[in-house]
Amino acid sequence: MAFDGITIAGIAKELNDSLIGGRIYKIAQPENDELLLTIKVNGGQMRLFISAGASLPLIYLTETNKPSPMTAPGFCMLLRKHIQNGRITQITQPGLERIIQIKIEHLNELGDLCAKNLIVEIMGKHSNIIFTDDKDMIIDSIKHISGMVSSVREVLPGRSYFIPQTQNKQNPLAADEASFCQAILSSSQPVHKALYQTYTGLSPVFAQELCFRAGLDGDFPTASLSEAEAGKLYAVFHHAVEDIRTGAFSPNIVYEHGSPVEFSALPLTMYQSGEREDCASVSTMLEQYYAKKNAVTRIRQKSADLRRIVQTALERNVKKYDLQLRQIKDTQRRDKFRVYGELLNTYGYQAAPGDKSLTARNYYTDEDITIPLDSTITPLENAKKYFEKYNKMKRTYEALSTLTLEVKEEIEHLESISAALDIAVGEEDLVQIREELIENGYIHRKSSDKKVKITSRPFHYISSDGYHIYVGKNNFQNDDLTFRFASGNDWWFHAKGIPGSHVIVKTGGDILPDRTFEEAAKLAAYYSKARGQDKAEIDYTEKKNVKKTNGGKPGFVIYHTNYSMVIDSDISGLSLVKD
Predict the structure, then answer these.
(1) In this structure, are residues 73 and 141 in contact, taking their beta carbons and an 8 Å threshold?
(2) How far is Cα 373 from Cα 308, in angstroms, rounded to an integer?
(3) Whole-angstrom Cα distance, residue 543 to residue 391?
(4) DSSP 386-423
(5) In sequence order, what are the residues at sequence separation of 6 or more whose Cβ sits closer than 8 angstroms to the Cβ of residue 159?
(6) Is the CB of residue 117 less than 8 Å from the CB of residue 104?
(7) 3 state SS of 102
(8) Rounded to whole angstroms, how far apart are CA atoms 51 and 127?
(9) Chain centroid offset of residue 533 CA
(10) Phi, psi of 46 (to 5 degrees)
């Protein structure tokens, strides 16, 4: 989700409600492009976090402190000199631009009252924090932008500050129905694109949201709109603008399958299958959204080494398996050589010295067969060579039949570990997967390694009918759930023929309702390689029918009595219990 002008408007309102009249107590610069202001207000103090990072520019109120470098950077020292102990008198957002201007009054060296501006521009890679005087002259900025970098505007000490007008967009707060309909209907673009390219502050996502509220397909061209449809679109646009103007914000985060996908300061209703969480404030929404997003990114980074180990071993075993299958295919001729040897022992006397072949009656099929001969040796010696070829191929086939089964099991095991890495949501989950890789020889345990403490636990869900459902995150947990935790009459679910989690439904001796069976099957589909597919086949049976094979890999079982159902992997209606 873009950090759009609507979100900035929500933040500006929160800052006005919380910080006006507050005094800047501390100024810190934790990173090169970050500021953390501690502000004393009535009843305590608040922290304002500002980031002008190109990849993640942000501004919000937070309770979290960040460590600062031993030596403060020059920009931080300049701010301390001018505005430490200064009083915040005004916080504004020009139009619906992605800009917040903070006006601060302070006493100079002579004791005279002065005013300065701290301007935060949240504009992707062009984000900046700019410090100006009361005449909009730039004193300094956290990033210096010279004419060599930007032909639109220099951001350097001594230059005048102004907001660049590069896209000629209109202010939505000043729009009326006539100008709106004219602007949209005269555009040659899809409806949602016409919205966000005509008005400042609208992101592509919220433009699609407005189209959804109006009952329109945002990807349709504006030329296809009737005047009535344009009027309906204006009505929802005007309603959103009024919410912004009056500060009626409803910050919310949309989750899909437990992962945050979008946020907005106004309600997002177009995500029908997603779960929407309302937040107490825009700051809370931003902090929570990016914390969870960062957690997902961090777990992907932490698991990178394990993924590489698994993928390398998997590729090696797949190559080995393919080679073994080709070798087995070559041994399929072995019975032909045995027949050649037997027929030569029976009819070899018919071959004359120097013959290169012998045609004889095959008493297995009652048909004539031509047997190639080596003319330099006798028919009996030819028979002996054919028997030697047969025996060699037979031994190869028998050896490969065992080896291919072992390699196939190894491939399935590695694929199940790969699936577990996809399921992992925390570092504690990776610890258990690493232990499995160590126990199976993919990673060598160092002598300095201490015995790890396993804290990862299976997922715990509550069905719509109140039954407890447990989902293993990896092979060790699958074994524990099925053979230590589950009782004989509990129900066991697993995606058919593909890597996935064991799912256990605790029955408590009850007969489960159909809805609980379906929800458990959805979980089995979601926590498998079938995630995201419209249909997945799920096997299910009572736990007492599931058996562990002798010497089998962790998480691998057999069962002969089972039911099956085909279902999707949508678990949006299920509640995850935080144990």
Answers:
(1) no
(2) 53
(3) 45
(4) HHHHHHHHHHHHHHHHHHHHHHHHHHHHHHHHHHHHHH
(5) 137, 138
(6) yes
(7) strand
(8) 8
(9) 16
(10) -135, 155
Pairing of strands 113-121, 128-133: antiparallel
Predicted confidence (pLDDT) per residue in 332-359, tens digit: 889 899 999 999 999 888 888 888 999 9
* Tokens matching residue 167: 């896209």
Spell out a b/e string for 172-201, using b for 16 or more CB atoms within 10 Å of the CB, else e. Answer: bbebeeeebbebbbebeebbbbbbbbbbbb
pLDDT at residue number 150: 82
Nearest to 490 by CA among 512, 474, 514, 523: 512
What pLDDT sits at residue 165? Answer: 72
Weakly modelled stretches of the chain, pLDDT under 70: 1-2, 166-167, 257-258, 273-274, 447-452, 579
What 3-state class would DSSP assign to 447?
coil
**Bridge-partner residues for 3, per DSSP?**
none
Write down the mean pLDDT value for the chain. Answer: 90
Burial (CB count <10 Å: 0-12, 13-18, 19+), residue 204: middle
* Model pTM score: 0.63
The pLDDT value given to residue 166: 56
Pairing of strands 99-107, 259-264: unpaired
Number of other CB atoms surrounding residue 311 within 10 Å: 13
Three-state DSSP class for residue 266? coil
CA separation for the pair 102, 90 (Å, rounded): 6
Cα 268 to the center of its chain, rounded Å: 20
Q: What region does 247 belong to: left with phi over 0, alpha with psi -120 to 50, or beta?
A: left
**Cα angle: 96, vertex 47, 162; to 5 degrees:** 35
**In terms of DSSP H, where are the helices of 247-333?**
282-302, 304-330
